[in-house]
Design a protein that fits this description.
The longest helix is centred in the C-terminal third of the chain and has 17 residues. Strands 6, 7, 8, 9, 10, 11 and 12 form a seven-stranded mixed beta sheet that branches. This protein has two domains: 70 residues, Nuclear Transport Factor 2, Chain: A (Roll); 112 residues, Glutaredoxin (3-Layer(aba) Sandwich), CATH 3.40.30.10. It is an alpha+beta fold. The chain has four helices and twelve strands. It is 23% helix and 24% strand.
Length: 241
Amino acid sequence: MNIKTMNKWKISTVVLALVAIVLAAFLVKDNFDSVSPKVAAQKAVDYINKNLTSTPGTFASVDKGTATFYKFYIEINSQKYPSFVSTDGKLLIPYDSMDISKASSPGTAGSNQPEMVAKASTDVEGNFKAITDENVCTEDGKPIIYFFESTTCPHCQWEKPVLEGVVKEFGSAVSFHESIDGDKDTDVFSKYSSGSVPTLVIGCKYWRVGSGESQGADTEKENLTKVICRATGNQPESLCK
């Protein structure tokens, strides 16, 4: 999804960003004997694209990171991300290494997270997060629904008709903002997402990265309705029973 402002790597739904992945190892299933740095790195990129992200990346470069690992770069949305793959091509450690011998500066915990993601929140319907200290934002007195998508994102294409159907039912009770390929509301997008789409922000208080595809259209419609009702103060009553 080649969007200028969407320049962070995210894994798919279970759908979460690579920057949110705890530095952990994943076993590459297809074993092979001695391999060159480029072959090992490409194998790792293929594994990442298949298992860890809905935003395909491409192999950028590789070098000898340590005695047992190659350091390589995967490029996603014109942004390069460093990771490691073992020299035998069997073990992948996504994202860059961290020197834990150096203490971080006070107050830097979570500094790489988008502003709203770092705030305290609770889980609500449909895997949405409700930001504890955020008020519902409105436009002409109506809660604003932001939908960030890409024309090349299959999960966005699945989510779009479901969301539009629910928004249509709410009619004049909400204000719908649709951003395609980062064409608008980029300041809002950067507060809630590290770069992945679809990203849904309902009334600035409720947000989710990823689609409701795994739950099915009927359940997603029901969940969207409940979350939007939260933002509208349970209006209209015909929908928010």
